[in-house]
Amino acid sequence: MAFYSVKNVYKNFGSNNVLKGIDFDLEKGQVLAIIGSSGSGKTTLLRCINFLEIPNKADIYLAEENIFSIDSRPTPNGNVSNNAANKDECIDNLQLNNSKESGIELVKSEDSLLGKKKKTTARDTVKLDAKTRGKIAAQRLKFGMVFQSFNLFPHYNVKKNLVLAARLKYDKSLSEKERIQRYIVGSDVRNKRKAAFEEINKRAETLLQRVGLGDKFKAYPCELSGGQQQRVAIARALILQPEILCFDEPTSALDPELTREVLKVIKDLKKDGHTMIIVTHEMEFARKVADKVIFMADGIIEEQGSPDEVFGNPQSEKTKAFLQESEKRIDED
Amino acid sequence: MTFWEVTVELLNASKYTVGLFFLTLLLAIPLGMVVCACAMTKFKPIKYITGTFIWIIRGTPLMLQIIVVFYVPGLLFGTPIKNRFLAALIAFAINYAVYFAEIYRGGISAMPLGQYEACKVLGMNKAQTNSLVIFPQVVKKITPAMSNEIITLVKDTSLANVIGIMEIIVTAKSIVSTHAIIWPIFYTGVFYLAMVGVLTVFFKWLEKRMNYYRA
Ligand SMILES: Nc1ncnc2c1ncn2[C@@H]1O[C@H](COP(=O)(O)OP(=O)(O)OP(=O)(O)O)[C@@H](O)[C@H]1O
Ligand SMILES: [Mg+2]
Question: Do A99 and A28 form a contact (C-beta atoms < 8 A)?
Fold first, then answer.
């Protein structure tokens, strides 16, 4: 089995079926580029991978392990069924780490049970109980995410932006007893924690150098250019050592000049052996850097293959049209 | 009455103004957080009750609220509030807590969704997200609105005279009527201006201190 394997991803927002069965595999150290026209569901797919959205159906495997399974789709007629027996069926079991969990509930079915019609809000289509949310949060850490709009913490300097999450993660790994002992001056736990934080600082410095910002440790995000901010965001995602790093159009908010420096960093990361999934409109970049390209259209994978296959010899009419269109855009620029 | 005597008397009266001001802040700032949390909770009954409460407090004059707090316990339960200052303080604290809560709420809802999502993908829980990322930024965002409201509070303290608290303006008025001189009432303006001046300088300093980043 592949290092990372995604099967049968379905996601709908209300009646809008955005993902209609996405399957793909990715090997360790490979780079996957996802391309496709606006509204085809690329961002939604990436958000499902990071569990920022909970898909209605999906089976996800990482390193031979079933890290996430869910099936809470509405019944085939498109409506969430509104009788109690069926409700139990569609609230299928959520499997995490192969253990069956049923802390999941479909909001819409709940509402129709009460005889109420409610606007389904996008973010909470699938509601999870606290325990399930905790498990998903743990799985989420295996994935890093770099956003289009950077989303750095503006009130912290670059160093704090990087080390914050790593420190919290360390504290989380402490036992209940250790968490109290860390406040006792001179205690073993406290000294060990200090050393660990020193280690995190070093890691932050190394990462910052890796993205070419070794001298910006003390700067605040507002003092950096967009390209620099995005590179800090990449370093911030890497400090938690995710298995897979995801990018959602990391350069679309940037000028060409700044785009280049960010893309160079991503190329360097590939050399370091990072596994990455990149949603991008930079076709040239996708072709050069990706090991695998997925072209999405209308919530399905219209075509996938090596860059040479997809760009050089596209099979589907939609792919051809899309590639022609994006070439035309480049010519116009 | 000499200028000096009037000054001493007004200074003496400003202890109510200053006391009411600081005690109201001390109570209303944390109470506002509670009101804000209730207004933003997902638990519908509390949310709606709080919404109604906010509507009532914002929809009626503070002067009326002071009167209600002072008289209604006596009328309903036969146990009138003896301490006028306490009655005024309760009314002020509740009234300002509601206004502060609305400012907090505005600041929190102005936070971009991206900040929450960044926290989420970095493995932070809700408490960490709020205390380390959201609230510190909200404090900066709401400082201008809060300073406005707090400056208004200085002047609103004069409303306490409706239940007979001898604050600056009432004191000046009684001097005016007993000594047949008019200037002390105008002179009170100087006291308010001095207090507001101090606050203005303080908030300028605070805003500057928080200017180490732009959001
Ligand atoms: N939170 C949401 N609530 C409701 N609908 C949503 C939400 N997010 C996305 N959608 C819908 O899902 C569809 C796919 O959106 P998505 O953002 O995944 O597209 P995309 O391929 O990333 O497009 P782009 O290239 O413009 O970024 C759109 O029709 C959009 O309206
Ligand atoms: Mg998108």
Answer: no
Q: Which two tokens stand for residue A200?
A: 């995190």
pTM of this structure:
0.87
With H, G, I as helix, E, B as strand and everything else as coil, classify residue A188.
Answer: helix
Q: Does the structural domain A146-241 have CATH classification 3.40.50.1000?
A: no
Contacting residues of A for B125, CB less than 8 Å apart: 137
Report ipTM for this prediction: 0.88
Ligand 1 atom at minimum distance from A249 CA: 27
Residue boundaries of the structural domains of chain B: 3-209
Residue with tokens 């400056």: B151
CATH number assigned to the domain covering B3-209: 1.10.3720.10
Which 111-140 residues of chain A touch chain B by CB within 8 A?
A: 137, 140
> According to CATH, where is 3.40.50.300 located in chain A?
146-241
Q: Is A220 on the interface with B (CB under 8 A)?
A: yes
Integer CA distances (angstroms), B30 to B37, B58, B149, in order: 11, 18, 15
What are the pLDDT digits (tens) for A161-207?
999 999 999 999 999 889 888 888 888 999 999 999 999 999 999 99
What's the average model confidence in pLDDT over A150-157? 97
Q: Could you tell me where the DSSP H helices lie in B2-112?
A: 3-40, 44-59, 62-77, 84-109
d(CA B93, CA B32): 9
Q: What is the DSSP letter of A62?
A: E
Residues of A with CB below 8 A from B130's CB? none
